[in-house]
Amino acid sequence: MIKTTAQKIYVGLIFLFLYAPILTLMMLSFNASRTRAKWGGFSLKWYSALFRNREIMQALWNTLLIAFVASLVAVVIGTIACIAINRMGRRARAVMMGITNIPMLDAEIVTGISLMLLFISFGLKFGLGTILLSHITFCIPYVVLSVMPRIKQVDASVYEAALDLGASPVKAFFKVVFPDILPGVLSGYLMAFTISLDDFIITHFTKGAGVDTLSTKIYTEVKKGIKPEMYALSTIIFVTVLLLLFLVNKTPQEKSKLQN
Amino acid sequence: MKPNKLTDRLLSAPYLLWEAIFIIVPLGMVFYYGLTDRFGAFTMENVVAIMGAEHAKALWLSIALSLASTVVCFLLAYPLAMILAHMNVSQHSFIVLIFILPMWMNFLLRTLAWQTLLEKNGVINNILEFLHMPPLAIINTPAAIILGMVYNFLPFMVLPIYNSLVKVDPNVVNAARDLGANEIQTFFKIIFPLTIPGVISGITMVFVPALTTFVISKLLGGSKILLIGNVIEEEFTQAGNWHLGSGLSIVLMVFILFNMVISAIFDKNGEGNML
Are A226 and A218 in contact, with CB atoms under 8 Å apart? Predict the structure, then answer.
């Protein structure tokens, strides 16, 4: 009894450690005072100011657009890559997986500067395009990581049976293989989207002047002081995702309860 | 699936091309810039520059702080992973709660929030004052940077350890108990050795980003503490000396490579994978 109580306290403290900054930011979004140093009473003014702030809205749009497109492209390339890698010989597979994991294991700063040097020598104009290419590159490993285990579990004979029964390879893939790997594809997409959304370092090196995502906008504001509208925006995003996750996790359980 | 040479090639072509252009070539360029001077002539100068007093100091500080935060992460994460593995929480909701959900609040803002918490008149000191305890004065010191590293990278340590703990066969543990081992013996002789791949993978996942960060030191260390990441970042974005920046990055890559080799040796089957 004492042991489990101590365990619960320990888990609680770690979660407090992980979520204390998030709670702090939420509190700051309701702070009437402009500085984060003192509490000036409860206010919703930053929430209304947020929607009038063109720059933040533009940065939000860029961030969402990049995350959406980058994770979508990464899922397509990553899933095809998994199928291809799975059909390779052992040695080729090991080499491919090794290279795939480089952006994940390497330091982000090295990935950032290496892509920056690449774009410079290709003479690409720095902007949304270069950010997008970089995000796709570092999202692919996360897609492969979650799709690969699913691909390995797919029973090859079912696919062959579909072919024998006259399905074209493409049709056989979408009818037989794809439904099996779909959970992996979806979690890969969610993972890639989240990582792209939260990225700062690689975007910092591959963005052009005048183009900002939320991360790079926050970084330039650090010295002047963060605009409280930013806290309001983060709170809205966080609470929305929290509610969505809650709903998603709630529904299947209730369904299975009904079935029982 | 029947092997078919042509479709195999067509399937792997787009990804091979992507890997070559966006992973291999860029890394090659870092080496090219790092090993040449302004005129394109070969030189080791940019790499040897790490020995210079300021750069060496930044590198040592980075190594010291990242080692310290790795140790703290390990000490915090192992008990947490053990408790969670016993509680039978669903793995999915655990990953979401510890790893994915916090990421939806921007990483820079979350780290900055520690300023508000740690400041002289910040939240933590107000609580300490209320409890009649001495105030905490760690903001803008290396200790605050370690805290920031632990805060940001703790999940990377918890996940692989948790994953390898869940895989430990309960029959092996029961067998050890039946043969008379007490809890401590069972832990050190059975459970811990079986989770070493997870621990090593966690160490790699924490040490590399901690060693190379420039954001955490900038946000929590004031402007005076320079880590090797800050030096490289400034070379690229302010000083504009890509050759020197690349040369110093090569030094970093040696550390990263060393780390990867060690984790590959301990984790041959990829057991300590993150997810």
Answer: yes
For the whole model, what pTM was predicted?
0.89
How much is the ipTM here?
0.87
Answer yes or no: are the C-beta atoms of B55 and B250 closer than 8 Å.
Answer: no
CB B156 within 8 A of CB B202: yes
CB B250 within 8 A of CB B178: no
Supply φ then ψ for residue A161, to 5 degrees. -60, -40
Residue A27 in contact with residue A233, Cβ under 8 Å?
no
Size of interface A-B (CB pairs under 8 A): 215
Q: Which residue has the higher pLDDT, B84 or A35?
A: B84
Nearest residue on chain B to A88, judged by CA atoms?
A: B8
Distance CA B144, CA B166 (A): 33
| pLDDT tens-place string over residues B54-92 | 899 999 999 999 999 999 999 999 999 998 888 777 776
How is residue B181 annotated by DSSP?
Answer: -
**CA distances, A10 to each of A15, A143, B77 (Å):** 9, 33, 11
CB atoms within 10 A of CB B238: 8
Are A218 and B109 a contacting pair at CB < 8 A?
Answer: yes
Residue (of B148, B175, B130, B138) closest to B65 by Cα position: B148
Helix (H, G, I), strand (E, B) or coil at B238: helix
CB contact under 8 A, A88 and B8: yes
Q: Residue window 75-134, chain A: list those with CB within 8 Å of chain B.
A: 77-78, 80-81, 83-85, 87-88, 96, 99-100, 102-103, 105-111, 113-118, 121, 133-134
Note whether B236 contacts A205, CB cutoff 8 Å: yes
Spell out the SS3 assignment of chain A. CHHHHHHHHHHHHHHHHHHHHHHHHHHHHCECCCCCCCCCCECCHHHHHHHHCHHHHHHHHHHHHHHHHHHHHHHHHHHHHHHHHHCCCHHHHHHHHHHHHHHHHCCHHHHHHHHHHHHHHHCCCCCHHHHHHHHHHHHHHHHHHHHHHHHHHCCHHHHHHHHHCCCCHHHHHHHHHHHHHHHHHHHHHHHHHHHHHHCCHHHHHHCCCCCCCHHHHHHHHCCCCCCHHHHHHHHHHHHHHHHHHHHHHHHHHHHHHHHC
